Amino acid sequence: MITLASDFGSPYPAAMKGVVCRRSDARIEDVAHDLPRQDVRAAAFWLTQTLPYFPPAVHCAVVDPGVGTDRSALVVRAGDHALVGPDNGVLLPAARELADEVEVFRWAYEDPESSTFHGRDVFAPAAATVHNHGVAGLDELPRTARTDSFVDLWFPDPTVNRDGARGEVLVVDDFGNAITNVSGEELAAHTDETVTVNGRRAPVRRAYAGVEAGEPVVTVGSHGNVELAVNRGRGDDAFDVSPGDAVELRW
Amino acid sequence: MITLASDFGSPYPAAMKGVVCRRSDARIEDVAHDLPRQDVRAAAFWLTQTLPYFPPAVHCAVVDPGVGTDRSALVVRAGDHALVGPDNGVLLPAARELADEVEVFRWAYEDPESSTFHGRDVFAPAAATVHNHGVAGLDELPRTARTDSFVDLWFPDPTVNRDGARGEVLVVDDFGNAITNVSGEELAAHTDETVTVNGRRAPVRRAYAGVEAGEPVVTVGSHGNVELAVNRGRGDDAFDVSPGDAVELRW
Amino acid sequence: MITLASDFGSPYPAAMKGVVCRRSDARIEDVAHDLPRQDVRAAAFWLTQTLPYFPPAVHCAVVDPGVGTDRSALVVRAGDHALVGPDNGVLLPAARELADEVEVFRWAYEDPESSTFHGRDVFAPAAATVHNHGVAGLDELPRTARTDSFVDLWFPDPTVNRDGARGEVLVVDDFGNAITNVSGEELAAHTDETVTVNGRRAPVRRAYAGVEAGEPVVTVGSHGNVELAVNRGRGDDAFDVSPGDAVELRW
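ok -> structure tokens follow
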């Protein structure tokens, strides 16, 4: 199986699918092609939320503001999975979710057909080759070279004490839920209590529907992190936060 | 085959796909993941317009404002098809399109990984299990219990007489076509005539292109219902209607 | 394999998928269902950018402002590929990319279930039939009749001389890149120089990232044509152009 993720919108991903289908009989499943545009950190986050649910596969993930520059292409091995994409950190957080140890390979490529669409010209062919050859034999491919030098990406750690936590908004999802980097475990002792978020009071509930429609709620999202939400509304608006904003929780 | 429908936008459905792929080798086809958000009636309508075209399959459909509350999970058997989703009525109208008799089963689940994403944690695993076990043997699964107590959903009936019909707008599609609950058969005798819609006159035509671009037209849509449209434009704007609004047709 | 492309948005394409799955066990891959609405020329362009990357397949492409009128349905054979869609020119440019010689067949159909959704009622069934029968045997099908009389579509040719080129914007992609009909080969001699575009100066670079974020850039896109772009921004805004607008390049 080959999964495809990108910020290419439509219809560019179809060319990637065609390239994969020409070179491999792998089943293709789309992860998303509307990842936040050229936002490597957000893309890395969403890959951590989706790829670990798949069976062993080759995951081709392309959010690549540096396309056409001399940034490298990488293949990352994570257990039975491989991730293929640009060397800008986008692959690493999900790889670490998939396996305790990850190995990073540089993928050599020359003269792609275009300098603007390496998803089609570099990464899709690489994914098909890795799939056909097998993740176990990645070292033997003529284009791979193991490396310790690559762009890494870590999400920031929150600070937590007995009175609360200070973190930040990692991403806002399509529903308007503001997903923070604070672990939901910190909130577990405060379910059904009221906390303050950046100075404003809000109830902690297990489900969005734990408050009336239109009311703000602090909950633990499907990612296991503290999430600022509104039942049937947008949490980012109600809490006035955007990705990267600081979040001060006090209980 | 397992079909997936939801209002989850992107990229959450990818986690559902991963869960299905891990537990089953079923082919997956997406119905839609941008169903009108948390709008159970609109979702139920769109399922009636899409699921009956599929061969026998397990249809996992999740529009679920009550996620995380104590609402049940259902599996509905409709002939060779099964529908899996929350107990809020969303599955029933499509099930009745698929078969004359439907059987409803409660699906027991405990302690999902999250209280906000049962699409991933409850319904996708249930769909994979039902698929693997086969729709015919649904009764034998340890998690199923037949029930007569569930939330049902019926679309309202229009009133029709010799002078016209009074109904309502069920949904507005992406094109801006306002789809009513009035059967197109009522309109058949008036093709190429002019009718009034909420007091304004509009031509009845078999095709959008039966009027000039930008002109309003009353037609019978692909669902067999009366539709308020504009050739190459938006019918909801031209007729000033939204889902739920009354529609008075006079011929 | 059957590919599907349309401007139907969501969820109508699911009915097409269902119809195909009922009639064929072909693998289905989506090209796009958000092609610019009822814009035959833009759709034709995007098909040229995507279909040639696929292995031999039946490509069902429906952008069809004339649905329900007496316009014909076509099947176009292009080498090992077949294209199925309305007789409005949308299929021809991609067919010519797929093969040096193309053969056009009229596809006879009667009484579709609807007069507004031939994607479901005419073209999806036709694609399944062509797939099952095989592209080679297209002549033998009872519904096909070879024809020389069909609506064709050609993209306009630019005029090029030693001082520059005069062309037009064919389409604007999701990123805001304005894609012209001027071949990138004309620009090759001017890489890293500055040119004027409709009187305003802009640098020519091989990659978007060849200029600072927010800066305009003239480049050669993945289609091989001159593209007006902004690094991490929208070229159509910066160069103030829309599809169909004239573009005067001077070097």
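The radius of gyration of chain B is 20 Å.
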